UniProtKB/TrEMBL annotation:
It comes from Casuarius casuarius. It is a multi-pass membrane protein. Its main location: membrane. It is found in: Membrane. This is XCT protein.
Length: 467
């Protein structure tokens, strides 16, 4: 009875909540171990955390300009498509679907399960099968919610963003109180050069950038934002500054209470922190951390489904995934597609191996997207953009991303080679399936199956152009 399309329901507050909710998730509660392990000392790890925050701001500002220049949703995918062409955009889509997004979602889900169960088994570690079961239940819950309602997904994200900031405050305050009382013994000899291994630094940056990742999420839902030319830059700048300050204070609190060996030995740093500093909150903080991870899962599903939706609309993904539920107005097929891959990675994966596995591909394509901004400026100097950053920002960000990606081949050749192989495997798929026309018989069978699934899922193509 009414037109079927994705409504503009994301206000400035919801955009801010989406960014905060995506950045402050499992990363700050599991990445300190990875950053410290690969940077070698407390002092160098804090430098890595600040550098990652600054780098994230550079990337976020570059994406804010891309979001005002290119009016479609889709994030990395649509920016690479519009600036560098269809082949690199398809390779991104291929790697994103088969490696980056399911591995990222599995990492966050496993962190959710671990923190959810930690209070019930402390001081022992929670059994791994139980962690994986709870992780999958949490992921399926978010998947169902995103299939059901855009409005409720956005409201949940806003509420959980408040919970995330509260979790950081509960870690920061006792740490700062102890620091003010003179507990600085863990900062003695903070810059121990003997423990610094340069070829491991890219892995430290991967762990830190994983904690900040999420600053690009507003670009995935550009068509659903109210006043995007104003709200994207504003939400990006405020949220990234908030997270940088919060992360630096949180890490100082960790190191005030826990020594380097404690951090490296802990499977859940925030829980170890509370056990040592604030035992009265031993059951509260892990629950808040688990809810933070829950919010990150929600934001990830919400945004990645829009990537598949846009890729399908652009003709690089099956047309079923550009369809919307006739009553719920959600991109139901695109939301449900990640279900099997994430399930498999949660069942077989380990947090830190998964993190290195997907980081190579993610930062390669983010670097290409900001390279696309430089190319777009050069090709279209006449194009007026309501938000414009100095050229050194995208240039610096692109160089650092690509350099870190190149260095990671020396740091973790096995996982990086697997990621590289997955990206390269997209070449024959592109030329055989996307670039080349299907035969009439294959096309007829394909559309027949699509029609049957369309009827089963009660979905139709978007009826109103929103970009």
């Amino acid at each position: 009875e009414e037109a079927v399309f994705l409504r503009k329901k994301i206000t400035l507050l919801r955009a801010f909540s989406l960014l905060i909710g995506s950045m402050v998730g499992s990363g700050i509660f599991i990445s300190p171990k990875g950053v410290l392990k690969n940077s070698g000392s407390v002092g160098f790890s804090l430098i890595v955390w600040f550098a990652c925050g600054l780098l994230s701001m550079f990337g976020a500002l570059s994406y804010a300009e891309l979001g005002t220049r290119i009016t479609k949703s889709g994030g990395h995918y649509i920016y690479i498509l519009e600036t560098l062409g269809p082949l690199p955009s398809f390779l991104f889509l291929w790697a994103e679907f088969f490696a980056i997004r399911p591995a990222n979602s599995a990492v966050v889900s496993l962190a959710f399960g671990r923190y959810m169960l930690e209070p019930f088994f402390a001081p022992c570690a929670a059994p791994l099968p139980a962690v994986k079961l709870v992780s999958l239940l949490g992921y399926y819950t978010v998947l169902t919610l995103n299939s059901w309602s855009v409005t409720w997904s956005a409201r949940l994200q806003t509420a959980l963003s408040i919970v995330k900031l509260l979790a950081l405050v509960l870690i920061i305050v006792p740490g700062m109180m102890l620091l003010a009382q003179g507990h600085t013994e863990n900062f003695q000899d903070a810059f121990d050069r003997q423990s610094l291994v340069l070829d491991k630094l890219p892995l430290a940056f991967y762990a830190g950038m994983f904690a900040y990742s999420g600053w690009f999420q507003a670009s995935f839902v550009r068509e659903e934002l109210i006043r995007p030319e104003r709200n994207i830059p504003l939400a990006v700048i405020v949220s990234v500054i908030t997270v940088i300050v919060g992360y630096m204070l949180t890490n100082v609190s960790y190191y005030t209470v826990l020594g380097t060996q404690d951090v490296l030995a802990s499977p859940a740093v925030a829980v170890s922190f509370v056990q040592r500093a604030f035992k009265s909150l031993i059951s509260v903080v892990p629950l808040l951390v688990a809810l933070s991870c829950f919010g990150t899962m929600n934001g990830g599903i919400f945004t990645f489904s829009r990537t598949l939706f846009v890729a399908s609309r652009e003709g690089q993904w099956p047309p079923l995934f550009s369809m919307i539920h006739i009553r719920r107005h959600t991109p139901l097929p695109a939301v449900m597609l990640m279900f099997p891959l994430v399930t498999a990675m949660v069942c077989i994966g380990d947090i830190y191996h998964l993190m290195n596995f997907f980081s190579f591909s993610r930062w390669l394509f983010i670097g290409l997207a900001t390279l696309g901004l430089i190319v777009h400026r050069y090709r279209h100097p006449e194009l007026h953009s309501p938000f414009k950053v100095p050229m050194f920002i995208p240039v610096s960000f692109t160089i650092i991303c690509l350099f870190t990606v190149g260095m990671s081949f020396y740091s973790d050749p096995v996982n990086v080679s697997i990621g590289c192989t997955i990206v390269l495997s997209g070449f024959p798929v592109y030329y055989l399936v996307v670039h080349r026309q299907m035969s009439d018989r294959c096309r007829s069978l394909f559309y027949y199956l699509t029609h049957k699934l369309q009827v089963l899922l009660e979905v139709v193509q978007q009826e109103i152009k929103t970009y």
